Amino acid sequence: MSFNVTILGTGAAVPTLNRGTTAQLVNCQQRSILIDCGEATQLQMRKFKVKFQNIQLVLISHLHGDHVFGLPGLISTMQLLGRTEAILIVGPKGIKEFLLSQFKLVGLYNGFPINFTELEPNQEGIVFEDKCLTIKTFPLNHRIATHGYRIDEKPGNRRLDKEAFDETGVSNSYINKLITGEDIQDNNGVIVRSEDVTYAPKPTKSYAFCSDTAYFPPIIEHLKDVDLLYHEATFNDKDSERAAETFHSTAKQAATIALKANAKRLILGHFSARYRTMDDHLEEAKSIFDRVYIPEDGEFFNV
Amino acid sequence: MSFNVTILGTGAAVPTLNRGTTAQLVNCQQRSILIDCGEATQLQMRKFKVKFQNIQLVLISHLHGDHVFGLPGLISTMQLLGRTEAILIVGPKGIKEFLLSQFKLVGLYNGFPINFTELEPNQEGIVFEDKCLTIKTFPLNHRIATHGYRIDEKPGNRRLDKEAFDETGVSNSYINKLITGEDIQDNNGVIVRSEDVTYAPKPTKSYAFCSDTAYFPPIIEHLKDVDLLYHEATFNDKDSERAAETFHSTAKQAATIALKANAKRLILGHFSARYRTMDDHLEEAKSIFDRVYIPEDGEFFNV
Prior knowledge:
2 copies of one chain form a homodimer. In chain A, the strands form 4 sheets. In chain A, strands 6-5-4-3-2-1-18 form a 7-stranded mixed sheet. Chain A has a 7-stranded mixed sheet with strand order 7-8-9-14-15-16-17, covered by helices on one side.
């Protein structure tokens, strides 16, 4: 099954023509998950041909405009285009009022159900779970309550060893039980053990999202061995004081978190508009953690 | 002095890559006025190189998302980029709560002063006036309270007839009085009448904005002899039932208003995304009123 991320906006604070504000679309095992929704996210989705009516779940990190100002418009558009399926929005305390107070005033919204899970400021643990994946939250360290998220696939079925299975001579109708780990006995009394005719399930993958945050080592335990880590890097080294003042990170700090968490790969983002090129970000991050990427808006990553 | 309009968004309801939602920038005698502010208006401004820090006045027609969802982001960006000058927002009752309830939640706004003038549902008359221009409002006919606006330049100074003035032999220092219509007597007792040495002021111009609205003849009296009229034309003739149901207009209805108001020119807009070309709109409108234009986003009109 696929597990991938499209980075819809790589900019900080203010949208520009080159970099939208924060939003990412995660597809994990047929679940379509939007993380954050800065202004014009619905336009970024059109530009990068991302289907937004499939989104079932929205994760919001925090209530700063560059992470939420696109949400009312997106929900309105979903409704105007005929959506009937419910959506679940997980985010900080206040996200419900943020959205519903606007819909009350613009008098527009009377469509599909919107469900909310509001998080306490320092909440940790599972916020969503189904048969395919688990989503956990953990606190980041920003000027207001801000939530990181980690999405872990659950193991799928075991994979059939076709040759070993064929040697047993039992009917194909037992395959469904065997790949879920169940041993079987057929009508002729033949016993087949699952582990003798199947391989272990495909290894599961994981993705974590950390934005916005100062350098904050307590998150490392939540990021252990993650396959793909997104960590904000608003600034580079020469603006490290500004990073500390505003509770943002430098590229080097993001790389340090990736290294200490034993992440496999790192994507940076939330870049301040002050930088003409991202060369310094890349060089500084690579000095600590080599498997680091500087995305452009619309870039796609397999987890 | 210049008086012009940049159409920032020509689409209805839902922003697309081709047509943004409603927003227009009017420059009138060095005043910079934004009318409506759909999502991503700040990006349209960047795209079309419109300076948004100069905007002193915002006129909002009504509280539907495609006319206001860009306002929180625009104000935030103005603040983040260091604006200190006050701004005045004129719009329907509720516009203040719409904006301030969001800033309360996103905890971001603590910048330049925002003043509000909230309109009663059927308010008519002057909503803003200074030495250069007058802005009047009048009710449109939409599903919720919706306000049309008309901007009239005030007459400038009379224009000097250099030859006639020179013949009087009085000092140049009297020019400033004479062009404001004042008669003078100089130290030698020479009397000069303003009207003998000046021409009438340059004719004043006017611009009116009508969106969203069903076909609504009571607005005609407010639009009399307007130089440039913007009237929504969400639909064309084959969708005239849909227009009536949703309190929108067809191209022909917009043209009829322009004709009856004796407008000089007409711009259509707020086009439904269902139309691949605007040829039918143009043809139908032209059958009634010839001086009609179908703008693209970013198009610029001198009033």
